[in-house]
Amino acid sequence: MRASTRKKRELLSETALRLFIERGYEQVSVDEIIAATGTSKGTFYHYFRSKEDLLGEAYGRLFVIIDQWSSRTPSQVDSLEGHINRLFLDLADAIEPYPRLFRSLSAAALQQETIGRRASEWQDRLAEALLRWMPDPAKTGLLSSVFHGTLLEWCKRDDLELKELLKSRLALAWNGLRAGGHAAELRLAPQLKEENIMRIGIIGGGLAGLTAAAYLSEQAGIEGVLFERSPQLGGRAFTYEKAGFTLNYGAHAIYGIDRHKLTVMERELGLSFSSKQVDKRRVMYEKYDQITPAPLDFINIVKTDLLSTMQKVRFVGEVAKIIAHIHELKNYETLGDYLAASDADEDVKELWEHLVCSNFFIAPEDARKVSGAVISEYYQNLFLSSRPVNYILGSWAVITNQLRAKIEASGRWSLALQEGVDGIRYEGGKYVLTTKKREEAFDRVIFAMPVQQVVKLLKGTAWEPFLAPYERNTPTEVMVYDVGLKHVVARPFSYISDMNNKMFISDVSATDHTLVPEGGQLLQGIAYLTDDFETEEERKAYLEERTAKMEELFDRHYPGWREAIEVKRVSKKAMVSSVKNIVTNRLLPVKLDSVPFWFCGDGCQGKGELAERAFSTARTVAQSIIAELKTPVAAR
């Protein structure tokens, strides 16, 4: 490699690693690496196929240490044991200052083929180096396992010192090696009897079902089956590709990701994904013929033309009270009750209503039916967030694929796709699930499906009366209008919300460039829907009118979009949440008195809204079952 070529490659590599160390691998994009090095995309992709290739460069530093250690001659080594220990501790010295980087490497090696190859390469290099000095594969394999096992444990926890832990583990290993060299007979406890294994059936393979199964799959005493009626996992987080565009069934935006249950899951389950924040300065509201910054934070509140100076002062005060959890809103049954009692100007009331529409994906009349306590808690969390709106780069598939891989890797769980559960009964101390293919008995059953489907499945059983209060729950449905364009037709903002017609358009590819082919643009329009119609004809006419309004919004801000369409998908009634979180509906508890099953999903009682409630309830259910498994029978 020429000196100038090597210099460019090293610049990209060193800069990327520095950014990974400072901010974490998941938070750094290729565009940010390019900007930090003052190079171009062409230069970057000349040397590296992807960001994952750069992460693998970290192993290069470890190769150097191994090569330097291997180059020593026997005359320079006083003790074989000390020489080998020196290699392990030098490697630990190089790794320990950068826990975020090597945690990312550890997680990425399981998910990314490129990183996995590099990880295997450096492990092979280490094994070869050890065998040159100690030509006994059993002994070097033991020492290598001690090193890699200690490193993995350190990656999973932030309260350990790698070097000190490694010293103690190596000391134990060498004590065994000095004892005579021959392996003693292995002592084994009696094998656990079959009845000690808890078998769990999960019905539903959406985000909630996958999350619950992923947590449970980590427990050696649990095995199970996840049943999913459709041919793919993910439920409403389903993703598919067409003509180079990646389309989600709905948005893959996360509100307040830094305070979201997904970030907790990332750490606990060893997930690895990247996200990018929507540019708050390019989020706009349109009212009548005026476009103004959305009042998402104090800077935009000052800039917005939606409110007068005095109204801005009042709204800032309300935000401050929400953050301090002293706002009166939490004491009102509904937002409508609070607004009726408030002496605020109509513009402030309309802004509150519109914010709730935007974050809960509901029409204005439903926004007024949301509990004041729910809104207060939700916005306290969101206003405290430093990252209010983020996209998961690469779509929901990045999360669902990792959850699936974790479940399958356990070897104790099976995924039954295209196998819906048609019946359930209690027999012989077990719960028997019936599908068209089989009957199978389980110790515990988790319903991870829309509440309406739970009610339907339990019809005619002894448990039906306990589900009656949730039978009339209504879902949150929206119109989703996705268009993939051959080229960027316009990029005036990242998000435009039409306050007049209660709909918005997100330029998804402005934030998540991974979803489009080179030069393409992906726009997603969403219209909030009312569901109060006397006849089917009225409903159809209403949906046609909403479609026309959405296309007018595209015409107004993205001229030429019709001619540039490569992919188009319109879902006139897409379910966003299985239960609309309004006072006339009741979210299902994760556990009901007198009902022996567990429930999770976005229609259950949990933290946050939309996908977060699916994640949080599934985690709660899984942790409760694990605690039950670990509790002695006498203590139950």
From TrEMBL:
Source superkingdom: Bacteria
Listed Gene3D superfamilies: 3.90.660.50, FAD/NAD(P)-binding domain, Tetracycline Repressor, domain 2
Boundaries of every HTH tetR-type domain copy: 6-66
Record-annotated DNA-binding residue ranges: 29-48
PROSITE patterns on file: HTH_TETR_2 (PS50977)
The entry's keywords: DNA-binding
TM annotation in the entry: none
Pfam families (UniProt xref): Amino_oxidase, TetR_N
PANTHER family: PROTOPORPHYRINOGEN OXIDASE
Name the UniProt record assigns to this protein: FAD-dependent oxidoreductase
Organism: Paenibacillus thermoaerophilus
